[in-house]
Amino acid sequence: MDIIKYQDFAKTQFDGFENIELLITSFTHRSYINEHKKTASGHNERLEFLGDAVLELIVTEYLYNNYPEPEGILTNWRSALVRTESISAAAAREGFEPLLRLSRGEKRGSQRAREQILANTYEAVVGALYLEKGYDATKAFIEKSLLSTLDEILTSGSWLDPKSRLQEMVQSKEGFTPIYKLITEEGPDHDKTFVIGAYVDNDLKGQGTGPSKQAAQVAAATAALKRYIKEN
């Protein structure tokens, strides 16, 4: 194990880390333990559990102190900030990926799986930082790495769910309301797959697949949004 790279990371990001093993554990996926039982001391799931709570508190406090909007809007903004896509992107920007300790199988995983691992690691690092440096240092890191993206989220409207964003965009541009139609439904009752289309004035704008009609609708709305953004 190359401890130096974790020490360098800690020095750059956090002005050092006294318990470097704690930081290393925060980057250790459960799968890594299975292949390194003699050398790995633990994985990051407990730190992730702690970091998730600390992250939500800090984000909530920041929104409460800086924005007068009602609870419902602040809840949506918080959800946009702490969702997998947002915190995995923050982890990638902060240089987490080369430090991940994964099994060989996980290293070959899908892009979606890697995003989830990065997001979980971000939370674990937050947990480790909270234990090592305390609340204020953890808050400073989250403000720098994640909360700094809030303006972009608000400007893009990505804090709205895809169906709401699509409806808002279509109504403003074309005066119609999108509707969703079932295209196909396959599989047994306990394991169905739905394909749904998002239609605007009977024109198919996006198609999505999911294990439920709601999930397929969200996927269809996302596909339609990408098309509208590309065309405009």
Count of all domains: 2
CATH class of the largest domain: Mainly Alpha
**Helical element count?**
12
CATH superfamily of the largest domain: Ribonuclease III domain
Q: Radius of gyration over alpha carbons? A: 21 Å
Strand order of the largest sheet: 1-2-3
Structural class by SSE content: mainly alpha
Secondary structure: number of strands: 3
Envelope shape: globular
**Whole-number average pLDDT?**
91
CATH architecture of the largest domain: Orthogonal Bundle
CATH topology of the largest domain: the name is Ribonuclease iii, N-terminal Endonuclease Domain, Chain A
Describe this structure in words.
- The structure is a single chain.
- This protein has helices spanning 3-14, 20-26, 30-35, 45-66, 71-82, 84-93, 104-107, 111-133, 135-145, 150-156, 162-173, 213-231; strands spanning 179-186, 193-200, 203-210.
- By secondary structure, the protein is mostly helical.
- The protein is built from twelve helices and three strands, in the order αααααααααααβββα.
- The chain folds into two domains: 3-156, Ribonuclease III domain (Ribonuclease iii, N-terminal Endonuclease Domain, Chain A); 162-231, Double Stranded RNA Binding Domain.
- Strand 1 (179-186) and strand 2 (193-200) form a beta hairpin.
- Helix content is 62%, strand content 10%.
- It is globular and about 60 Å long.
- The protein has a three-stranded antiparallel beta sheet, with helices on one face.
- Helix 4 packs antiparallel against helix 5 and helix 4 packs across helix 8 (111-133).
